[in-house]
Specification:
The structure is a single chain. About 30% of the residues are buried. This protein is about 35% helix and about 25% strand. The strands form five sheets. Strands 5, 6, 7, 8, 9 and 10 form a six-stranded antiparallel beta sheet that branches. The chain is of the alpha+beta class.
């Protein structure tokens, strides 16, 4: 029978003589260890750490760290939530909580920003999706769990925090100072751009579906029958409640599957189908996504893309295709555990892959040279000496002025938000095409 010899001997550099420890086991005995024997091993190690560690240890924190270590070894999204953290989670889903206003995950030992939330201290301070937070108030985040890092970023409203950020394209990490505040999130903001309704979804909390319906009604009241279509802006939306992603998708679909979730037991797969009714009344939709669009945002984008209900424009999304279930643990907080993967109606899993846009449009800033070139007036027939004048009626003159104003507004928007301007141009083009078909 093959034997394994494990010897630990003190070296001269240690400076103290330690006894030689020899453990002899058989491979068969090692493989035969039961779960309960490993639990006994954990208890033995815990007791030795408690008694023999160089400093006194907080037993509760030691156990919580062990629990978090077990859960974080599964995936970046499973974690233990102490009672106070569990209360924070419930506040966030209701749409109001204290903090910086960022959705984060853990990657390569650092905290990665999935997305800053609109109109929050983090967004206003310049934090961007994809940033890596390497230090919090000068202390490295290496070795911290995600929950510990989040705890350090929380604090009293009005207090300041300095995070050190590593950003792609920046030569060196840099500091961002942020003042903590109460985060009040309005899940949906609605406005009009020309004859298009723009619906900006910042998160998926308990208010999202209701706010969406209110936003669409606001656009309809303002534009009446002149609505050309809607832009659903999911950029930098980190996700949230699965139930709200389903309701938002259902708001624009008449029938068919919205999403399916599959856990360990494939026979218990859950499918959700749309109910009749389209709040947009069949008007064209363009959905904007980017690398900060995650989770629930990807469910909506994937459902509308698979049903060909919307054109997806922007950049590839984040790729979080898993479902977390929060399980109460009596009075000891809760556990957030990944219990399923979700799939789009066509059966796609976007885990670690993301949603690929139908039209790739990277965000970009218009340079001063490009803006000057665009504003440089070219010569036309009207500039020629002695050219014939066009005798326009008052109605034609008014229509011409409206067209010029619209183009000037679009040009200004293109310099500020290139992706949104592209979406508006796309909807305008679709309306021209549809009107042409109707006239035939």
């Amino acid at each position: 029978m093959r034997k394994t010899l494990i010897a630990l001997m003190a070296g001269a550099a240690i400076g103290a003589a330690l006894p030689q420890i020899v453990l002899t086991t058989t491979a068969q005995e090692n493989n035969a260890r039961t779960t309960y024997q490993y639990l006994d091993l954990f208890g033995d190690i815990f007791e030795r750490v408690r008694v023999a560690y160089v400093e006194d240890v907080d037993e509760q924190k030691l156990i919580e760290a062990a629990i978090n270590g077990m859960l974080s070894s599964l995936d970046p999204h499973s974690s233990y939530l102490p009672p106070e953290n569990f209360a924070d989670i419930r506040e966030q889903t209701k749409g109001e909580f204290g903090g910086l206003g960022i959705e984060v995950t853990m990657e390569n030992g650092f905290v990665k920003v999935v997305a800053p939330i609109d109109d929050t201290p983090a967004a206003n301070a310049g934090v961007e999706a994809g940033d890596f937070i390497t230090h919090i108030d000068g202390e490295s985040v290496l070795g911290l769990s995600l929950a510990d890092a989040v705890d350090q970023m929380r604090g009293p409203v009005g207090s300041q925090i300095v995070i050190t950020v590593s950003r792609e394209g920046a030569e060196e990490p840099f500091d961002i100072e942020i003042t903590r505040d109460t985060i009040k999130i309005r899940a949906v903001r609605a406005r009009t751009e020309g004859n298009v309704g723009v619906l900006r979804l910042t998160t998926f909390n308990e208010q999202t579906a209701t706010n969406l319906a209110e936003g669409i009604e606001k656009v309809k009241k303002e534009l009446g029958d002149d609505v050309l279509g809607y832009v659903i802006d999911l950029r930098n939306n980190p996700g949230g409640l699965l139930s709200q992603a389903i309701e938002v998708s259902d708001a624009f679909l008449e029938a068919g599957e919205i999403v399916s979730t599959r856990g360990r037991d494939l026979e218990e797969a859950d499918r959700v189908n749309a109910r009749a009714g389209d709040l947009a009344e069949g008007k064209p939709l363009v959905v904007l996504i980017n690398e900060g669009s995650a989770s629930a945002s990807e469910i909506v984008a994937g459902a509308l893309q698979d049903h060909r209900r919307a054109i997806i424009v922007g950049a590839k999304s984040f790729g979080k295709g898993s479902v977390q279930t929060i399980m109460r643990l009596g009075d000891n907080g809760a556990m957030k555990l990944t219990t399923a993967r979700y799939y789009t109606p066509s059966g796609r899993s976007i885990q670690a892959l993301g949603i690929e846009p139908d039209i790739l449009v990277e965000e970009r800033r218009i340079t001063a040279e490009e803006e000057a070139a665009a504003n440089r007036r070219s010569r036309s027939e009207a500039d020629l000496r002695g050219s014939l004048e066009n005798q326009l009626s008052d109605d034609e003159k008014e229509q011409l002025e409206e067209e010029r104003a619209r183009h000037e507004a679009t040009a200004k928007l293109r310099a500020e938000d290139f992706q949104l301007a592209y979406a508006l141009d796309l909807l305008t083009g679709l309306s021209v095409y549809d009107n042409g078909k109707a006239d035939r």
